[in-house]
UniProtKB/TrEMBL annotation:
Keyword annotations: Golgi apparatus, Membrane, Phosphoprotein
Pfam families per the UniProt record, alphabetical: Arfaptin
Family annotation (InterPro entries): AH/BAR_dom_sf, AH_dom, Arfaptin_fam
Main localization of the protein described in the UniProt heading: Golgi
Record carries keyword Membrane: yes
Compartment annotation: Golgi apparatus membrane; Golgi apparatus, trans-Golgi network
Protein name per its UniProtKB record: ADP-ribosylation factor interacting protein 1 (arfaptin 1)
Keyword Hydrolase on entry: no
GO molecular function: phosphatidylinositol-4-phosphate binding; protein domain specific binding
Lineage of producing organism: Eukaryota, Metazoa, Chordata, Craniata, Vertebrata
Gene3D superfamilies registered for this protein in UniProt: Arfaptin homology (AH) domain/BAR domain
Length: 344
């Protein structure tokens, strides 16, 4: 038994035919160890080969590889994780902060609107500006009604012109086929065609009137109403933060409430400046709008009056002169294209 025990270490070394030691096991171990450095502890059997392996206080050296301390590796992994966590949380925190501010502002404004509707809350009123805004909205409704009536007139006039052209063609046909009434049918045919032509001129003038007033209503006035809506929203915010500050000032003043009062005072000042700026902008815009509106409507109403009067007076020359005065070119959809002789 002692002899077997003595031979047992030597028996672990395989010998080739030439009596040389077989190092294949060590080569295999050297290839495997670098992949399993952190997989488990190194036993004392592996430490018995100081030529290839070494372990010094947590440092593992295998062949040409450089030892890496476990503490340094842990610090690198921890530091990298912290940076990634900051990058991920930063946008989320910003979004949550924006959502929080929006929710607070929406709550305050909704509370202010309900208080005003229930007659419990006070609101800031600029009597002169509010009167101008109300007049503008009322005028917009009236202008839209005028545009609708003018469009109806155009539709009816176009139908009448179509009937006049057909009636003129019928008279002309009968003038050719009825020799004894040739002149009578011919006069009526020319009259209906002339009325249809003058009607087309009047139709062009009315369409130009509609287009100009519609531009005034849908573009100029509507743009001003958008600014008015922004002004009203700024007014609600201003009153909401004003009411909030008044409620805090009525309460007790201690170490807990003083920071809230100071913060509320800052918010109130910001919304007050915004409200004043919007109020001035709306006042200036209403002034320019009034000047532009008077100028546009002055020209368009003269055009409409002169065209209607000349048409029903049968003054073809005056009707055509009215269109030239306002630089109106007749281009009616579905209308007949004038011949080369008529154009020249």
């Amino acid at each position: 038994m002692a002899e077997e025990a003595y031979r047992s270490p030597a028996a672990q070394i395989s010998v080739t035919r030439n009596g040389e030691a077989d190092m294949s096991h060590e080569e295999v171990f050297q290839r495997d160890v670098p992949h399993n450095i952190n997989s488990g502890p190194i036993t004392s059997h592996f430490q018995s080969s100081p030529e290839n392996y070494a372990m010094n206080e947590g440092v593992v050296q295998v062949g040409p590889y450089t030892g890496i301390t476990l503490s340094a590796l842990t610090e690198q992994q921890t530091a990298g994780a912290v940076v990634l966590a900051d990058d991920i949380k930063s946008p989320a925190i910003e979004k949550l902060e924006l959502m929080r501010k929006w929710s607070i502002n929406t709550y305050k404004c909704t509370k202010q609107i309900l208080s005003e509707k229930l007659g419990r809350g006070s609101r800031t009123v600029d009597l002169e500006l509010e009167a101008q805004i109300e007049v503008l909205r009322d005028n917009k409704r009236k202008y839209e009604h005028v545009i609708k009536l003018a469009q109806t007139l155009c539709t009816q006039l176009a139908q009448m012109l179509q009937t006049q052209r057909q009636l003129g063609d019928a008279f002309a046909d009968l003038s050719l086929k009825t020799p004894e009434l040739h002149e009578e049918f011919g006069y009526n045919a020319e009259t209906q065609k002339l009325l249809a032509k003058n009607g087309e001129t009047l139709l062009g003038a009315i369409n130009f009137f509609i287009s100009s007033v519609k531009t005034l209503v849908d573009k100029t006035i509507e743009d001003t109403l958008v600014n008015i809506k922004q002004y009203e929203a700024a007014r609600i915010e201003y009153d909401a933060y004003r009411t909030d500050l008044e409620e805090l000032n009525l309460g007790p003043r201690d170490a807990n409430t003083l920071p809230k009062i100071e913060q509320s005072q800052q918010h109130f000042q910001i919304h007050r400046e915004k409200y004043e700026k919007m109020r001035i902008d709306v006042s200036v815009k209403l002034k320019f709008l009034e000047e532009n509106k008077v100028k546009v409507l002055h020209n368009q109403l003269i055009l409409f009056h002169n065209a209607i009067a000349a048409y029903f007076a049968g003054n073809q020359q005056q009707l055509e002169q009215t269109l030239k005065q306002f630089h109106i070119k007749l281009k009616l959809p579905g209308g007949e294209t004038p011949s080369w002789l008529e154009e020249h």
